[in-house]
Design a protein that fits this description.
The complex is a heterodimer of chains A (331) and B (196). With 331 residues, chain A is α+β, with helices and mostly antiparallel strands. Chain A has helices spanning 25-32, 45-58, 152-165, 178-187, 202-208, 231-236, 303-320, and strands at residues 5-16, 22-23, 65-66, 72-82, 87-96, 101-105, 108-116, 122-131, 139-146, 168-174, 189-197, 220-230, 260-266, 272-276, 287-289. Chain A folds into 2 domains: 5-176 and 287-320, no CATH class; 181-276, no CATH class. Chain A has 7 helices and 15 strands. In chain A, the strands form 3 sheets. In chain A, strands 1, 2, 3, 4, 5, 8, 9, 10 and 15 form a 9-stranded antiparallel sheet that branches. In chain A, strands 12-11-13-14 form a 4-stranded antiparallel sheet. In chain A, strands 6-7 form a two-stranded antiparallel ribbon. In chain A, a hairpin with a 5-residue loop joins strand 1 (5-16) and strand 2 (22-23). In chain A, helix 1 (25-32) crosses helix 2 (45-58). The two termini of chain A are 38 Å apart. Chain B is mostly helical and 196 residues long. Chain B has one domain (7-191). The interface between A and B is medium-sized, with 17 and 13 residues.
Chain lengths: 331, 196
């Protein structure tokens, strides 16, 4: 068995202060990366991109940056700017820290060969790609991870912090290209439905059991499993976003806006993905990368291979977010 | 089928372009086009027929003149659109940034849509001119004092008038579409810096 490479994609945009208006990246670059006597909008894009990338990656320095819990850390390995394509990409090193780890030979589970001190970072290389189009307000971050481990949230959080220092609010949301979703939906089945209710009235808590009456944070989870339905059949069972039609008034599960329904999907390889059930049934499956993107004989990605592969995925995202025309030819 | 004549293809592309955005995505519901392009002209044609509006030979001649002028202008416009597109394609030679490539691609889509709309409007113009000629048909047909024949001629005249009104309003709708696109094109001309 080998490790599997995954890819997380986020679309992001920035707002100045608490305003609701999003700032275009051209404006952002020209507001913050103009030097001395230079005039706004007159500095070539290439220079602004380089300054932005240098300025961001300088915040890492030569050190590893830890998360708040000090359990994971990342440090910059390499980065490249491609201003013509509005892309900054590279590799980060990252992994677990803050815990003593013993190293064993796999044939001997009794005696540790050595120990990794909790101040050290056990690191793996991760590929990242940042796309910030000069003529738009929506960018994309892609971070590769492994099925067993990853530093995605730390990387995104660090990027978010950079904008925070420049007094911008960083909004982001997960994105899975439409094509991946459709492929996943075709090949997968729904195997579990869970209904979540997070707020119950005092009366409902009392009726469930008088012992619950004082627990304002009482949560209800109703899980139904033991079935397998293809996505089309599952959609047939939906009525206005409701899949469970039983009377669950005792749990105050009546109005579909006041509780959440989460469906668990499973694809042919047994990989699971969860999605909030809504009228449009939006699924966010995990994006699994092919093994041939790995470095020969290694389990981590080859930079050139993953770069061109993620470029192709980025093109799909651009069409999804209506940045690119459908017939655009970048070559 | 003689493939050199592509009237149906032009019609299909043009009507489809009414539903597309500059990213070449179909964004408008088919009903929108049916409403503006078919239903409204049909309603107007019926109203005109009900209130007894008819096109006589004199008015038909005026219309033929006016539509001929428009048709001539449209042929010229086709060349203008193609020339402006070529100017923009040259931008990529000096600037291959993603946003520039996207811009040129969008402009290409816009031009393709506009060209199909103009071409189709030329076809509508020609069709209207031919139909207007038929307004004189009564003079060419054999004249008998039969009641049924005169009733038939009256019915034929109503049908012809109805078709002219219907296609005439469609022509005006297309005219508005082309005018709006020209407006966008000219505003873009003001904004864009073309390579020297």
């Amino acid at each position: 068995m080998a490790h599997t490479l995954k890819l997380s994609i986020y679309c992001f945009s920035i707002r100045k202060g608490r305003t609701k208006e999003f700032v275009g990246f051209k404006e952002f670059f020209n507001n913050h990366f103009i030097e001395g006597e230079e005039k706004k909008y007159e500095v070539p894009k290439e220079i602004l991109y380089k300054r932005f990338a240098d300025s961001y990656f300088e915040t890492f320095g030569d050190q590893f940056i830890k998360n708040i819990d000090e359990t994971k850390a990342i440090g910059i390995n390499t980065y490249n700017t491609m201003p013509k394509l509005n892309i900054i990409d590279g590799m980060v090193n990252g992994g677990i820290t803050g815990i003593d780890q013993d190293i064993f030979d796999s044939s001997n589970a009794k005696a540790a060969e050595s120990t990794i001190d909790k101040s050290k970072v056990t690191s793996l290389p991760y590929y990242f790609k940042i796309w910030m189009p000069y003529d738009s307000q929506v960018g994309v971050i892609m971070v590769q991870s492994y099925t067993e481990t990853g530093v995605t949230s730390l990387f995104v959080d660090k990027f978010k912090q950079f904008f925070k220092t420049k007094e911008y609010i960083f909004d982001f949301e997960r994105h899975v290209p439409k094509e991946f979703k459709e492929k996943f939906a075709k090949k997968s089945v729904v195997k579990e439905i869970a209904l979540y209710k997070t707020k119950l009235s005092a009366k409902a808590r009392e009726e469930l059991n008088s012992l619950f009456a004082d627990f304002e944070g009482l949560k209800v989870k109703i899980s139904i499993s033991g079935f397998k339905l293809d996505v089309d059949s599952f959609k047939e069972g939906l009525q206005d976003g409701r899949f469970i039609h039983s009377d669950l008034a005792a749990f105050e599960i009546t109005d579909e806006n006041e509780y959440e329904t989460i469906a668990t999907y499973e694809d042919v390889s047994g990989r699971e993905s969860q999605a909030k059930v809504s009228k449009n049934l939006d699924i966010f499956p995990t994006i699994i990368l092919n093994n041939d993107l790995k470095e020969t004989g290694k389990e981590y990605p080859n930079y050139k291979k993953i770069q061109s592969h993620t470029d192709a995925i980025l093109e799909k995202v651009k069409i999804d977010i209506e940045y690119s025309p459908e017939n655009v030819d970048k070559n | 089928m003689w493939t050199k004549i592509k009237i149906w293809e032009i019609r299909k592309d043009s009507l489809l372009s009414l539903r597309k955005d500059i990213n070449n995505r179909i964004v408008k519901n088919k009903f929108n086009v049916i409403l503006y392009y078919n239903l409204i002209p049909l309603i107007i044609a019926i109203i005109f027929l009900i209130i007894g509006v008819t096109i006589n030979s004199e008015i038909a001649n005026y219309f033929i003149t006016a539509i001929s002028i428009f048709a001539g202008l449209f042929f010229n416009l086709l060349l203008v659109v193609a020339s402006k597109l070529n100017e923009r394609k040259k931008i990529i030679d000096s600037n291959s940034d993603e946003e520039t490539v996207n811009y040129v691609e969008r402009y290409t889509n816009f031009s393709e849509q506009l060209i199909s709309q103009i071409s189709y409007t030329i076809i509508l113009s020609l069709l209207l001119i031919v139909l207007m000629f038929f307004i004189h048909f009564k003079k060419w047909l054999p004249h008998f004092e039969w009641q049924y024949l005169s009733l038939f001629y009256h019915g034929l005249k109503c049908l012809l008038n109805g078709i002219i009104f219907y296609i005439g309003v469609q022509f005006i709708v297309m005219l508005f579409v082309i005018l709006s696109s020209m407006y966008t094109m000219l505003l873009d001309d003001i904004k864009i810096k073309l390579p020297k």
